[in-house]
């Protein structure tokens, strides 16, 4: 039996889904829930393989929020009469609103932007911040088993992609190592940085699933999950993207140590600490791609010291951050406007760094928001970004907390929340994390 058939059979059963209120209008039927959960799984798969698929899945989920599928009624589709009141009825509406405000921040910045085309580009790619909370608001809280199934789907997609990456590297090892020596990267489904961060996220989530010892699809899944964790751990070192490695060690390591500390398993704390300290040295001596990446990084830093940062990765990143801070000082409160930021950055490159061929926006999420939205916008962003983890229920979800800190660190070296894939990752998993916590709250309320 296929995974998808298992999912459909599971939700064709007489399982009862709790709702926000007993008199909620137009309760989803089992057939509607089947469609909802199936499209959620397809959305998770699309994160790695298709931006168009992401848009299509979000569009279909929005349709399921506006309409209900019912076999009992004479109509196959009928309007969801609770759509407009769903926000008012939800006890955690402010958590969803904090995600929606991230979209509102970009929307309001249009008043401060002359380049309407660029502004509309950012409005379009940030649509998941508006739509995914609306979708979760208009469906009953997601069950924990289904939430874990979605996580495992992401992990399996990353695993399948990793098998392809590792196979290509094994066949073309010499060519790949030469590419890395010259500052290029291995071929991956997404850019190597995005893929490495998804690898880190998958390793952390898979570890949490294994340690929680929760049944997902089969009672024999724990050993395969540990094997997957090991394979992904090797893959992220072969890929040698520093951002992915940084997020893995800086987030996954402390989370694992805290877990073992609470369990009073002090020998495992010592073992994990030893592994974390020795793994980079072992990788340097045993993984050629890691070795070449390290020496390219040393060369890059040396060029920066000699004042030859033009068109080198680290040098251009630091230069883009410097440009962002310069633009912020010109407009400290409201910034340049997100629509005009690219034009202003290119102007700075033309005037002060004519040798740079990469005219990029600030490679730091926070500096970018300082430059685009000003100090007021950055403060609003940080408040909205952090608000969902201010409640105690969020800290019971290691996947949500892990993603929060991954994005927090990722934003120091990139601008993930202005790129469609990670906007979707952030909006989807935070919306689902709020929804699954709602499910727990409802269970406690009815117990």
List keywords for this structure.
single chain; mainly alpha; globular; disordered N terminus; disordered C terminus
SSE topology sketch:
Layout: H1 3-11, H2 30-49, H3 51-66, E1 67-69, E2 77-79, H4 86-89, H5 93-108, H6 116-125, H7 127-137, H8 144-171, H9 173-181, H10 192-212, H11 222-239, H12 242-262, H13 266-286, H14 288-305, H15 313-330, H16 341-352, H17 365-386, H18 398-413, H19 420-446
Antiparallel strand pairs: 1-2
Helix pairs in contact: 1-2, 2-3, 2-8, 3-7, 5-7, 5-17, 7-19, 8-10, 8-11, 9-14, 10-11, 10-12, 10-18, 12-13, 12-18, 13-14, 15-16, 15-17, 17-18, 18-19
Q: Which structural class matches the secondary elements? A: mainly alpha
Mean pLDDT: 83
The sequence of SSEs as H and E is: HHHEEHHHHHHHHHHHHHHHH
Low-confidence stretches: 1-26, 442-447
| Order of strands in the sheet with most strands | 1-2
Largest sheet: 2 strands, antiparallel
Principal-axes geometry comes out as globular
Question: Beta-strand percentage?
Answer: under 5%
Helix content: over 70%
Number of strands: 2
Helix run count:
19
How many whole angstroms does the radius of gyration measure?
23 Å
What is the CA-CA span between the terminal residues? 34 Å
């Amino acid at each position: 039996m296929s995974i998808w058939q298992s999912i459909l059979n599971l939700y064709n059963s007489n399982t009862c889904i709790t709702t926000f209120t007993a008199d909620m209008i137009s309760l989803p039927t089992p057939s509607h829930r089947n469609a909802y959960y199936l499209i959620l799984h397809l959305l998770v798969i699309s994160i790695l393989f298709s931006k168009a698929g992401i848009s299509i899945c979000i569009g279909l989920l929005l349709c399921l929020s506006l309409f209900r599928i019912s076999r009992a009624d004479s109509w196959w589709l009928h309007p969801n009469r609770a759509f407009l009141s769903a926000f008012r009825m939800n006890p955690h509406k402010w958590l969803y609103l904090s995600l929606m405000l991230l979209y509102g921040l970009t929307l309001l910045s249009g008043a401060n932007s002359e380049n309407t085309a660029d502004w509309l580009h950012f409005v379009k790619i940030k649509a998941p911040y508006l739509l995914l909370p609306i979708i979760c608001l208009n469906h009953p809280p997601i069950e924990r088993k289904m939430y874990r199934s979605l996580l495992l789907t992401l992990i399996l997609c990353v695993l399948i992609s990793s098998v392809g990456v590792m196979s290509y590297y094994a066949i073309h090892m010499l060519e790949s190592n030469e590419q890395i020596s010259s500052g290029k990267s291995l071929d991956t489904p997404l850019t190597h940085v995005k893929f490495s961060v998804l690898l880190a996220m998958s390793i952390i989530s898979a570890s949490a699933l294994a340690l929680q010892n929760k049944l997902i699809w089969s009672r024999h899944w724990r050993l395969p999950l540990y094997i997957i964790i090991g394979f992904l751990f090797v893959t992220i070192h072969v890929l040698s993207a520093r951002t992915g490695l940084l997020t893995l060690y800086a987030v996954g390591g402390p989370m694992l140590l805290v877990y073992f500390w609470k369990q009073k398993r002090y020998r495992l704390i010592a073992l994990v600490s030893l592994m974390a300290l020795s793994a980079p040295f072992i990788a340097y001596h045993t993984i050629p791609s890691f070795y070449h990446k390290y020496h390219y990084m040393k060369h890059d830093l040396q060029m920066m010291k000699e004042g030859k940062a033009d068109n080198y990765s680290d040098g251009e990143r630091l230069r883009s951050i410097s440009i962002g801070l310069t633009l912020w000082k010109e407009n400290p409160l409201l910034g340049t406007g997100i629509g005009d930021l690219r034009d202003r950055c290119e102007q700075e490159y033309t005037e002060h760094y004519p040798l740079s061929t990469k005219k990029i926006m600030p490679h730091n999420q926070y500096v970018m928001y300082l430059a685009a939205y000003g100090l007021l916008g950055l403060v609003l962003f940080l408040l909205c970004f952090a608000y969902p983890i201010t409640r105690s229920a969020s800290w019971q979800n290691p996947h949500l907390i892990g993603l929060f800190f991954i994005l927090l660190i990722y934003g120091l070296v990139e601008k993930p929340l202005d790129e469609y894939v990670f906007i979707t990752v952030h909006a989807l998993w935070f919306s689902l994390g709020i929804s699954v916590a709602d499910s727990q709250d409802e269970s406690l309320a009815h117990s």
